[in-house]
Amino acid sequence: MRRRARSSESASSIRAARAAAGLALALFASLARASLFSGEALDKAADIVAIVVLIVVPIVVIVVFWLIHVLPERFAEKRHHPQTAAIQTLCLLSLFFGGLLWPIAWLWAFTKPIGYRMAYGTDKAETYHEEMGERAKAGTLLEGELDHLRSELDTMAARGPLSPKLQRLREDLAALPAGEDAKPAAGGRA
Q: Does the structure show a pLDDT above 90 at 54?
């Protein structure tokens, strides 16, 4: 019996508190405003919001859309993908087709070009070999990296003629001493 008396007392006190809160909100409703501004300030704020929504937001959306759509191209360049130009073309086409081709460009940028390696003897772009050749000439490549670069260029040459740049690089690498471990010293020189 005591429990019922306590629960009915607490329920009635909760109802009374709710009624008091509702009455207080009803009394202060006349002080409520829809905006912080009034008159000319409200018109000026509406003009600024309209300019932002009509001009700034579409420009930002277009720039962000473009930046996202060139990401596969950037990753392909960073990974020295041999088909970077094709991935770039697919990214541009994706811009015109509303992003439908973008997932394909994304996947293509991160795939290992096995068919390309079978055909040409490498899965890297020509710029990769040129950068590695510059590092070899500067003496910052380790012996294993230098041997790998030489063997990759030899494999490519066995499959077909090299471009003039890569042929020159192959000759320059053949002229470098083979047995030395090229480690950079304190000044960045070997």
A: yes
